[in-house]
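Record 1 of the preview.
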Amino acid sequence: MAAGASTFGQSGARRRRILVENVQAWMFLLPAVALILLFEILPAFGAIWISLFRWDIVQGPFRGLDNYAAWLWADPTRAEAFWRALSTTLTYLLITLPFEMAVALAVAFVLFQKLRGRSFYRTLYYLPYVTSTVAAAAVFSWIFHPQYGFANQLLGLVGIERLQWLQEPDGVFQMVGHAAGVQVPDLLAGPSLALVAIAIFSVWHFVGFQIVIFLAGLGNIPAEYYEAARIDGANDRQIFASITLPLLSPQIFFVFTIASIGVLRAFNEIYVMTNGGPLDTTRTINMLVFRTFFQQGQLGLGSALAVILTLIILAFTLVQFRVFERRVHYG
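->
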């Protein structure tokens, strides 16, 4: 009886200790949960609620899904603006994300080698990421200035005439074709030069974060794998393709997912550098949300568009997980 009572007492004490530890854990999490609930979850549900009404300055009549339908097909003017903004957003994604990841992976691979001053270069490449996006975009607006900008000064050194950069609505392929005397149809004009300039800024600004992630992944690959491969006679290209890339796939997948969401939600750099112009060639969905919600004061339509953008990002992320996660190797 005494032994049984002792065992029961120990079991009860263990359960109480576990309960206390769980309560302490939730107490530590409570501030973060409260902030997320207050500034993320509740505003999201508030936006969904507003999107169901005709809501200008004050709440109007209930419209159900009419605000969503207006953007997708019901209102020809708004539908045209939405599909054009979606095309611009996806184009911005396609011209930014591959270059960001390629540059980050190449620089991380070089900085992982035993170089003199390696720590200095790692810090140097990371500095743009911790710089204010608005301040950095303002500096790049000066760099791409058509008259005084540093970019045109560099082009002048190689005999290329000044470009309008952030004020140029023509597609880059169309501009190249015009310079070569070839007529390029509007369908193949490509992204505007202004959008390409913003993409250049985005690559410069965000590549530092990706370099850090890739450096961490490279540091987790056991050196024995490389030694065994060299003993078997593998060259650098074979080692990179057969060892480095497969074992770096978790970091590649993480960077691809996070960077995709960031590009689809891009706002600060576009607002500062072009404000959606010229001729709406840099007006992404996020910029269209801003114009509708804040500049035009149509809160219901703006909220509906914001919800649509959220669903697009969610769908894009789910497709990424479904398609690419199975190709990730965790060692």
